[in-house]
Amino acid sequence: MNCVPQCLVAGQVAPGGPGGEGGSNVDQMVKDLMKFDANGDGKISKEELPDRMKALMDRGDTDKDGFLAKDEIQKFFQAQNSAGNRGGGGGQRRSRSVRSQEC
């Protein structure tokens, strides 16, 4: 069974990506999500996603073709990462690596 960080399910990315500070883990998150590509066509259909993650299709499928391509996933997580880095003052948010309960 695929083990995907909980932040992917929630669509949330803390600065530095899940479990780390510093550089972005967007590439790793894309790689993790692409594990759901059951038929190996290089894109993810809504049917390939677990129910708890189907909302990603609505938010990430920018060309509305019914699939999440790698570039759409990458842009989605980069935007989430940028949104997490804005917000003004205060300390740096910390993230812990949280795995889904199905692992």
What does this entry look like structurally?
With 103 residues, this protein is mostly helical. The chain has one domain: Recoverin, domain 1 (Orthogonal Bundle), CATH 1.10.238. It is 35% helix and 6% strand. Residues 12-23 and 88-103 have low confidence and may be disordered.
Helix-and-strand structural type: mainly alpha
Q: Extract low-pLDDT stretches.
A: 12-23, 88-103
Quote the average pLDDT: 74
Q: Report on the biggest sheet.
A: 2 strands, antiparallel
CATH topology: Recoverin, domain 1
Assess the beta-strand content as a share of residues: 5-15%
Q: How many helix segments?
A: 4
Gross morphology is globular
**Through-space gap between termini:** 7 Å
Spatial order of strands in the largest sheet: 1-2
Based on the coordinates given, report the CATH architecture.
Orthogonal Bundle
Percent of residues in helices: 25-40%
- CATH evolutionary superfamily: EF-hand
Total domains: 1
What order do the SSEs take from the amino end to the carboxyl end, as H and E?
HHEHEH
Computed CA radius of gyration, to the nearest angstrom: 14 Å
